[in-house]
Amino acid sequence: MSMQASKTTGIEKETLVTMYRKMLEIRRFEEKVWHLFGRNLIPGTLHLYIGEEAVAVGVCANLKIDDYITSTHRGHGHCIAKGADLKKTMAEILGKKTGYCKGKGGSMHVADAALGNLGATAVVGSAIPIAVGAALSCQLRGTKQVVACFFGDGASNNGTFHEALNMAAIWRLPVLFVCENNLYAMGTRISNVTAIENIADRASAYGMPGVIVDGNDVIEVYRAAKEAVDRARNGGGPTLIECKTYRHKGHSRFDPAKYRPPDEVEEWMKKDPILRFRNTLIEEGVLTEKQADEIDRQITETVEEAAQFAVKSPYPQPEEALEDVFVKLR
Amino acid sequence: MKELTYVEALNEALREEMMRDERVFLIGEDIGPYWEGAFKVTKGLAKQFGVERVRDTPISEACIVGAAVGAAMTGMRPVAEIMFGDLLTLAMDQIANQAAKIHYMFGGQLKVPLVIRSPFGAGKSIAAHHSQSLEAWFMHTPGLKVAVPSTAYDAKGLLKTAIRDDDPVMFFEHKLCYTTKSMIPEEEYLIPFGEADVKREGSDVTVFATFWMVHQALKAADKLSKKGIEIEIVDPRTLVPLDKETILDSVRKTGRLLIVEEDCKTCGIGAEIAAIVSEEAFDYLESPIKRIAEPDTPIPFSPVLENYVIPNDEAIVKGVIDLLES
Questions:
Q1: How many domains does chain A have?
Q2: B206, pLDDT greater than 90
């Protein structure tokens, strides 16, 4: 393969390896979450990010520590891609006191204020206006921060999407609208509820660039996000990036996802973003098989440590339920 | 001292806070230099502070509030205006699920120092979509503070406090109160949340009232006084936090409670006040608690119909006399 034609040309090796690590971190983390759920250690429900790792990682690889993200009910991947501590994330998912939100948020509501993760909302589409507000704040404060707003195909049919894209465009706010189009909103196929094929086509209605990328190709996501982040940071306004992707699991904990045709699932499994990226990195000489395996081994170990930490951590005291309603009531 | 209307007092509060703190900015529909707010509360502010800080928006209530939430979470102190309280329905998810819950749900990591200003109240013949009083909804949502000023003096002092507060504040105004006047001190003042104001002292009956109903109660008090009856008017000024002690102290003194609210009766704020007094001062009551409220209907248009549903001073006079005779 000639170097000119290589997929990774122009991206620093360190960035590539970091992205690979982050994607694997998400995958192994989610697999561990699934395992702990099976052991009845996780209350409530779960929405796993397995299969969509390239989206969060390709976008967040372009963000600085003080840039912001907003996240969704399927949010573990966004947190980890923004740099979240695996122990505190896992502990939150288990409802422990040592979790990011002291056990008050759980799987659907992880935030990390110190890393600019403004938190996951479980109301579909609700975080999109909040991302616009964070971007407005960046603009008013005159910083060069940007905001990445993650949401799914389902959210793109909520009114908030349309209000928010319009508002971001008129004020040229530094925000990336990242649509993770995994083809299904719960069990509803996007093509049954949306008359156009590409959600990114809606960008033109609001006067912003719309980009469609293979969301299972982290390099493609990275390059599209880089362009959008550069534009946002330099006052060029928002971008809508549609990442075509697929969740490997069902919508939530017990969903066997029978509404998806088996051959469709099979096709997408072949496009597993981590396998593809690993193959690319090895083919292009960024990593050897052995190095890639070693990274996997290390990450599996780190994730196991996070799980142990979470399992061993104490639950909050029941009366802590009464704390944090207000910063200060009186 | 100077005499200002409620609108002018609000305007002065915004101006002073914007001068004091550059993180404060205003966002809403038609609040900028062309219209200056549907009720002129933002008059002159865009000219003084610029359209970046007094920001006209599209008609997108959910996004106005959502953007204010996002800005508040990231270091700004937005004051969002929703032109009519009825339109808060369009932003309810952002208010009730986001603003109210973010501090709690994320374990105290993030705060939302946000003020949402919006006018309530009937009496202007603008019918069912521009006349409601919905404060009970927000009092029922943990995580929100709720201010309900009845006078220009209270409006100014409470708005300044609201803007400096680290929690989301629903700051409700009343369309009929907008033209009322108070004497306003030249020097700066703030009114703490959770401190009721006894608008008139009396020993016979406690009248709990907010907004325009305070003014109706004051009129009723004059009429009753001529009959030798002295009512005590307790204006809570904020519903969250609620100054229960002042209400309970008054009831302990008078032994009788009349609640007047401009909202439909079922599950209105009066129901909560009545429950609190029943739980905590039952033994002091000499007669059952009485509520005067709007019937459970939308607000009608025709003045004949509208006047019929809004409680007024005559209804309060009758209610007080009924209580004393019961």
A1: 1
A2: yes
B62: contact with A, CB 8 A cutoff:
yes
Last residue of a domain, one of B129, B158, B184: B184
Pairwise CA distance, residues B37 & B315, whole Å? 34
Q: What is the CATH number of the domain that holds A81?
A: 3.40.50.970
Q: Which two tokens stand for residue B12?
A: 């002065």
For residues B130 and B119, give the distance between their C-alpha atoms in angstroms, rounded to a whole number. Answer: 9
Comparing A7-11, A66-70, B86-90, the range with the smallest average pLDDT is A7-11
Q: Which residue of B has its CA nearest to A67?
A: B74
pLDDT single digits (tens) B3-34: 999 999 999 999 999 999 999 999 999 999 99
Q: Please name the residues between 97 and 136 in chain A that touch chain B, using a CB distance below 8 Å.
A: 99-105, 109, 111-114, 118-119, 121, 123, 126, 128-136
User: In one letter, which amino acid is B187?
Assistant: E
Domain span at residue B203 reads 197-325
CB–CB contact A324 B103 (8 Å): yes
Annotation says B130 is catalytic? yes
List all residues 6 or more positions away from B321 whose beta carbon is below 8 Å from its beta carbon. Answer: B224, B227, B229
How many Cβ atoms sit within 10 Å of the Cβ of residue A18? 13
| Interchain pair A130, B67: CB under 8 A | yes
**Tokens for A201?**
């086509």
A226: exposed, middle or buried (Cβ count in 10 Å: 0-12, 13-18, 19+): middle
Q: Which residues pair with A241 in a beta bridge?
A: A178, A211
CA distances from B98 to A118, A130, A133, B165 (A): 11, 9, 13, 17
Nearest to B110 by CA among A61, A14, A315, A71: A71
For A43-55, the pLDDT digits (tens) are 999 999 999 999 9
Residue B289 has phi, psi (to 5 degrees) of -70, 140
Q: Residues B140, B269: one domain? A: no
Cβ(B116)–Cβ(B80) below 8 Å: yes
8 Å CB contact of A329 and B241: yes
- Region A239-255: what's the mean pLDDT? 94
Q: Does B73 touch chain A (CB under 8 A)?
A: yes
